[in-house]
Specification:
Its cofactor is FAD. The chain is of the alpha/beta class and about 300 residues long. Strands 1, 2, 5, 6, 7, 8 and 19 form a 7-stranded mixed β-sheet that branches. It is about 20% helix and about 30% strand. It contains 6 helices and 19 strands. It is elongated and about 70 Å long. The mean pLDDT is about 95. Bound molecules: flavin-adenine dinucleotide (FAD). Flavin-adenine dinucleotide binds next to α1, β2 and α6. The site of flavin-adenine dinucleotide has 37 residues, from α1, β2 and α6.
């Protein structure tokens, strides 16, 4: 059996694996796709001490670092269940195999909800983006739209208004859902515009980059186009935790509830990164949480095996 079994091979899982392996304990990583969301990222400029890198390069670096240690990497393996059997936890994989471990670290990450409108896929990373903290500076002095009027959308619009020339917030509903204080802040900004009752219908581009966004005014039925260079989709982040429902405590949004050590509601099971309640979904944050969870798992092991 593994002493630490990490489920997920993104920044959180890689950090957890390195920290666990450095304690000299038997460590494994099972990941559906080693590298995680980083693989889908182009330019990364906020991983502190690395001024500039690219997603695939960072994913490779994560794997190289983990392989410096005696870690059993099981790539292309999707976990589908977890249960306790005496002293051990058993993780069932979709392949039919079962992995046994004394502690498990869940680091299955999350994925951004998409609008599904024509052009969104074609222009991803070519103007369509999901992360204001990551990509905001790329649109300095340009025009952008934010889709979604919840807290994350309105926060993104306020954040971007300080960088871009103009930001249009587009909300499907008749009103914004964000906290009143955020709405007030956004309304006070001279270069921000709010459009409600607007259904985004298309991302327009010239073949290589975004040139506009098309929406339907849900009151009049009119179709309108806003010319711009960037679109930030902020309609929700979905944690990859469906398979954990009823096993560990999740929030209504599906985030794994963790304490400051990364402990979940299930004994011996820890969690780290975008799949948890920890705020701010970023690479450097996920790496820190991965380290925390591995050290917490190690602390748990030395207590659990005390005579
Ligand atoms: P993830 O990276 O999501 O990794 C999850 C891992 O779990 C993957 O290996 C996945 O295959 C695996 N997995 C999922 N379900 C299962 C399962 N059931 N069984 C086994 N394995 C499973 N952050 C920044 O800091 N800077 C940026 O510039 C930046 N740009 C971004 C650009 C894009 C396009 C995207 C999508 C994200 C960006 N982010 C950026 C966010 C950053 O990528 C995430 O915060 C970070 O990757 C989270 O790490 P994680 O390890 O928690 O999860």
């Amino acid at each position: 059996a593994f002493e630490v079994l990490v489920i997920g091979g993104g920044p959180a899982g890689a950090a957890a694996a390195v920290y666990a392996a450095r304690k000299g304990i038997r460590t494994g990583v099972a990941a559906e796709r080693f590298g995680g969301q980083v693989l889908d990222t182009m330019s990364i400029e906020n991983l502190i001490s690395v001024p500039h890198t690219e997603g695939p390069k960072l994913a490779q670096a994560l794997e190289t670092h983990v392989k410096e240690y005696d870690v059993d990497i099981m790539n292309l393996q999707k976990a589908k269940g977890i249960a306790r059997n005496g002293d051990l936890l058993e993780v069932a994989l979709e392949s039919g195999a079962t992995l046994k471990a004394r502690t498990v670290i869940l680091s299955t990450g999350a994925r951004w909800r998409q609008t599904g409108v024509p052009g969104e896929d074609q222009y991803r990373n070519k103007g369509v983006t999901y992360c204001p903290h990551c990509d905001g500076p790329l649109f300095k002095g340009k025009r952008v739209a934010v889709i979604g009027g919840g807290n994350s959308g309105v926060e993104a619009a306020i954040d971007l208004a300080g960088i871009v020339s103009h930001v249009t917030l587009i909300e499907f509903d008749g009103k914004l859902r964000a906290d009143e204080v955020l709405q007030r802040k956004l309304r006070s900004l001279p270069n921000a515009e709010i459009i409600t009752s607007a259904q985004t219908t298309e991302v327009k581009g010239d073949g290589s980059k975004v040139t506009g966004i098309v929406y339907k005014d849900r009151t009049s039925g009119d179709i309108r186009e806003v010319p711009l260079e960037g679109i930030f989709v902020q309609i929700g982040l979905l944690p990859n935790t469906d398979w954990l429902k009823g096993v560990v405590d999740l929030t209504p949004r599906g985030e794994i509830i963790v304490d400051a050590h990364g402990a979940t509601s299930m004994e011996g099971v820890f969690a780290a990164g975008d799949c948890t309640t920890a705020p701010y979904k970023q690479i450097v944050v996920a790496m820190g949480a991965g380290a925390t969870s591995a050290l917490a798992a190690f602390d748990y092991l030395i207590r659990a095996t005390a005579p």
